[in-house]
Amino acid sequence: MNWLASDAGMVGKLIIKDWQVYQKQLAAYVAAMLLALGLVGMGTPLMASAGALLLLVLLLVVGSYAIQSSTTTERKQQTAPFIMSLPVTPMDVYWGKLLANLVIYLVPFLLVVAGLLALILTTPRPDGTVPWVAVVALFMLANFCVSLCVAIAVDSEGWNIFAMLALMTLIGPFLYWVSRLDGIVQYLKTDDIVWSAPVLGVLAAEVAVIAIAILVTSWIHARKASFL
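^ that's the sequence the OP posted. Answer follows.
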């Protein structure tokens, strides 16, 4: 059972193909995120809250759009016969699809995270919110990775949509919980950047969720002898 791609060059072409398809839409999302960061940077509570909410929504939308377009839509268009005509293996296609979506998502994701950290560290805002931003950002990345892995591994559009919506509903409770987490809440209004044990524990758990999702999906595809 081979977990690796047989042709790295072909995987690279598959990544470039998806990137070229979605780069115009991605540019629009990035422009909207820059606008949202501008609202956060205005400093007023109302504008900052509106900008933060817009950033959260945009991260969800860009992730769900990429997943739906690159997996569900391609299945509806029945591109499997075309893919099978190419000199690729199931693992080539899997890694191409996984890495392409990660690249597409990481561009706006890193822009948002870097922008927020820059605003926190270069303005009078409390620096103690840095660990909170890190925990929430990694949760959003984990949310996307699990949704992506489910979409790649499960052919049912209904189950894919259900999984995506179920994961989205966890965001509100997670934000409520982490904002009151011991090791974060007492530093939110201070300039002390403290990487406490609870913070590191949550970060480690989020990384573990991402790794497990990718490993399980890789194992499922490694068992496939063909595309059917």
